[in-house]
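Second attempt. The first submission of SAM-dependent methyltransferase had a stray character pasted in from the spreadsheet, which I only caught after the job came back as garbage. Lesson logged: always re-copy from the clean sequence file. Corrected sequence (226 aa) follows.
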Amino acid sequence: MTNDIAAGSPTSDTPSPVGEYIGDPALRAEWDQRYADRTQLWSGRPNGALVAEATGLTPGRVLDVGCGEGADAVWLARTGWDVTALEVSGVALERAAGHAHDAGLTVHWVHAALTEAALPPASFDLVSAQYPALLRTPDAAAERALLAAVAPGGVLLFVHHAGVDARQAQENGFDPADYVWPSTVAELLDDDWEVEVDEQRPRVAPDGGAGAHHTDDLVLRVRRLR
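This time the job returned cleanly.
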């Protein structure tokens, strides 16, 4: 993975991508605080599972769900994709836009929660969700939003951490059962979808950054047939 973004703050002349936020203000505030507590939260490198799975795809329109500080969005744009990057944190979006600007790349930024974003349906050749913190709801709104965004012939790539210790997570105030996982997305698939990858594999983990201690991935790659 050679297309790393520079560490630290982007240049000060970067146009701000942060417009009116669409979503739960408390969720935005929570993630803004997490990013504001550190000058850089993630490694600055694209996620290994995304690089492995997207390298063989023909670039088209891609939706980067929960783009964070923009490493995946920058890598995708560099490799020829037309990138729409969605994020709830305005702090993260500012950093992501700065990295894209410094690299001379164009990314379409969306400051919204996935379920509130009013994305054009069935319009993305790739929807990438790398370790997203998507809350589950009784109507499976987040899972359905992910699937609805994929164009016919397109791919949803959903990657999350394997081997999460539920008891330890709950002791830290995090219940894995509250969140969307590859398995909850797979439960909604019908004959309009083909499962191309559904497996646990060793993670190609970047050095440093939050979450670097996770060693294995759950990888779900599904293609919309019609």
